[in-house]
Design brief:
The structure is a single chain. The chain is an alpha+beta fold. The chain folds into two domains: 69 residues; 128 residues. It has six helices and five strands, in the order E-E-H-E-E-H-E-H-H-H-H. The protein has a five-stranded mixed sheet. It is globular. 18% of the residues are buried.
Length: 202
């Protein structure tokens, strides 16, 4: 098996090499380069996640793995685009989620609530990533206080959950989380329009 990465080729024995070892070598080379992993092209097929599992499942048939990397700006552009897609999709769903808590939550409501918490945590990471790279995005408007507001809202939700207060959960979603999501959506979209290269939108 040939692994093409950063202009060099590394050869592994398909029979004796583990998927874990291959991923460790790839990750180490990428860390040393200061770049970010975009995807693995395995026998011509693009793989974007669960790399080790995919390699393990296809170890005997893999001939070539091409490692595609991005610089920090390209990686953050992708994060912004993912953030915009998530916000566009989630804002209407979050409003519906609040309504369901007002009416009385079902098991499905709690599942959606857990997904919301995960999404907010990811958005906080996005904000921190943008804050750490503001020189790359002069037009970025959101600041670290928005991340702090998200965390405060999460703390309030945790307290409401401890008290089994579903009306308070709905209020926090409606009056704390929703305005933050809408504000962040404006900033993310504005930054994409002004700072992300058009060919990065594909």
């Amino acid at each position: 098996m040939e692994v093409k990465i950063l202009g060099q080729s590394i050869f592994f024995n398909n029979q004796s090499t583990s998927a874990q070892k291959i991923i460790e070598v790839i990750n180490q080379l990428i860390r040393d380069s200061g770049l970010f992993l975009s995807c693995l092209k395995v026998n011509g097929k693009d793989i974007y996640n669960d790399f080790e599992f995919y390699i393990e499942e296809h170890l005997n048939t893999i001939q070539v793995i091409e490692v595609e990397v991005k610089n920090r700006k390209e990686w953050l552009d992708d994060m912004l685009l993912s953030g915009a897609r998530y916000l566009e999709r989630s804002i209407p769903a979050v409003q519906q989620l609040a309504d369901r808590f007002y009416q009385g939550p079902s098991a499905g409501t709690w599942t959606q609530f857990a997904q919301l918490l995960e999404g907010v945590e990811w958005l906080v990471q996005l904000i921190h990533g943008m804050e750490q790279n503001k020189l790359l995005y002069p037009g970025w408007g959101t600041n670290i206080t928005v991340a702090a507001s998200f965390k405060e809202a999460l703390d309030n939700l945790a307290e409401a959950m401890e008290n089994s207060d579903t009306i308070l959960i709905a209020d926090i979603i409606n009056y704390e989380i929703m305005p933050l999501l809408e504000s962040l959506m404006v900033d993310v979209q504005k930054t994409i329009d002004s700072e992300v290269k058009r060919n990065d939108l594909n």
